[in-house]
Amino acid sequence: MGKLVNISVKVPEEVRKLMKEVNVNWSEYLRGVIEAKVKMEVAKEAARKLDEIREKSGKVSIEEIVRWIREDRERGLG
Question: What is the number of alpha carbons within 13 Å of residue 72 lying toward its C-beta?
Answer without folding.
Answer: 6
